[in-house]
Input
Amino acid sequence: MSLFLLVRRNLFRHPVRSLLTCAAATVGIFLLIFLTSIVTSLNDAVKQVSTKRVVTQSAVSLFVNMPEAYRAKIAGVPGVESVMRLQWFGGVYREPSNFFAQFAVDPELFLEQFPECVLDAESRSRWLSDRRGCIVGELLADRFGWKVGDSIPLLGSIFPKNGGEAWDFTVRGIYRSTKSNLDESSMWFHFDYLKETLEAGLASGPDGVGVFYVRRDDDVTAPELCERIDALFAGGPQRTLTQPEAAFQAGFVSMFGSLPTFLGWIGAAVLFALFMTLANTMLISSSERIEELGVLKALGFRDGVCSMLLLGESLALSLSGSAVGVGLSLASVTTFRRLFGTTIPSYAIRTETLFLAAAVAVAVGVAGGLAPAVTASRLNAAEALRAEI
Amino acid sequence: MSAISAKNLTKAYQRGGETLQVLDGVDLEVAAGEFLALTGPSGSGKSTILNFLGGLDRPDEGSVIVGGTDITRLKGASLADWRSRSVGFIFQAFNLIPVLTALENVELPLLLQPLGRRERREHARHALDIVGLADRIDHRPRQLSGGQEQRCAIARAIVTDPDVILADEPTGDLDVKSGRQVLEILKRLSGEHGKTIVMVTHDPEAAAFADREFRLESGRLAETSHP
Output
């Protein structure tokens, strides 16, 4: 027999009520971890990009292409190691809900500039030698059950083929990624296939190149190189905006607008609802046991002990429900990666997020039990026992 | 020396804008080992006196000395500690903790004593044995009859071996037979174990078990003779 036993028994006094309160804590902490991890995963992707790469885009907008001739000019800038063309394709696989990212690139340069892309030698060779070949990330391949040799028909939306025909691609390799900036939910294919098809008049779409990925050598810093490239086109015909890849990716994150703030508000609202649920449960529970608290005081239990009993119950409800929430969050990482891999590269839960969840669980547990604990502390034993006068 | 010495106890309550003088200079002396009954009409202040004697409430004026300690001077934790050592309570509605077994209920006050788990269990079993509930130790309150619940409450009141036991209408919720059992136990605790007992009751038959009876009326206390 100990006071812990009393706390435990009181928790099971109304099992359904306790279970529902625990479930609220589970949902609250699960959502907190999920929403926080969305933001941290987006930020992690930005932080993990190579410091060796800078990205040149049109100064007008990311959606305005630059002349292809810029490639050669950029390549001539001192400090440039290589220049890769990259074009957002925007094709539709069977139906729009099957959305995933597709990029036209220079395959050799892509593999050289992105060492985080892990592709076996055989797949490399197959992809490089097949103009219609493409590589897809492991998550994307899993999502649609693709394997090497499968054909992928894509309907062009930015680059529609004549007569509504589909673009044909063949899976030549399935890659893995060692860094979260390169997700495993994208498809990469030959820029030349896109260019030649457009030039042959078999498809329509914007000319030029969406962005240039530039790898610098060690003799120049990223800001210096950005300055040099942009200075080259300062007089037109189209001005450029060159920035380190991290800044470029951060721009993508900012395209989500105030998403982090929005998610923060949702998280705060969920936690407030959890606090209200817990506080309500504890207030009902303690008000049902006023006489028992009076008895404890009559037996000689100090005011603080009576408070701690109620705080202990509140904490136990919050922590047990939250522990389930943490478990569910960890178990669902793979599922969320599959679901959101395209939008949120490499969704992951940071250790700091788990510590945050634990701190929140404790804070909500204490806050939820605070009002009844204070009431219990101030309770007059004689009044609690409904003393006759 | 008296086990309990209460002097000039005064208490007034505010009700609906009116002052209700419940106690008006009450004096009470109870000798060690004495079994005393407090009677009087409902609302006369009997339980209020009991609350003063147990340190659950404070008089507006007056002092209460129990076992040589002026408990009206004690506050907060020191008052709680004094209660845990010096006094046992028995309530009309038994007030056992429903989620604990009989043994656990009796063991509860011992958590405040410097005893190990095994010692606590032994003391609790012994107390239950004294009240004839040795075969009900694993029963929860709802599995006990009213009389058994009250006997369990008596075991809880005596398990810390306090000098003073305060009983508020201990037979009020019991049938005649169970009530008599409880009164006999209280009588035995006083007679054989030397406990000082103050019992509030409406029941003249219950009061007759006490050594002395005091009647409270209009805020004043007066000793009455047993029939």
In short: Chain A has two domains: 3-46+258-386, 60-238. Chain A has a mean pLDDT of 87. The beta strands of chain A are 53-58, 80-88, 101-105, 117-118, 133-137, 151-154, 167-177, 186-190, 211-216, 240-244.
